[in-house]
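Bench notes, afternoon.
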Amino acid sequence: MQSDQLNYIPILIQFLLAVGFVVGTIIVSGKLGPKRSSKIKEKNFECGIESVGNARIPFSVKYFLVAILFVLFDIEVIFLYPWAVNFKELGMEGMVKMVIFMSLLLVGFFYIIKKKALEWE
């Protein structure tokens, strides 16, 4: 083996140990854990609300729209961190680019507000 390939052996060993630990923990907990079942334990339960009716009831499109907008604006805010860290090194050019970026962000935000995408009925 070449010396470059030998450098990856500790990573492979660590990966195998991690996978082995996870698999071993799941197997051991399945064998040693309690196996008491009852009607109440086998009942579907989520968030303190008892399941009633069909699970395939469609959600409002507003729910998905708000979720997508949240992710979109959250990701755009993440772009501000590297800019803030390198603010002095980017100089005036970086400032102009960030002003353009933020203005496009604000235009999009005002567009969503105009379309009333964040209002619930």
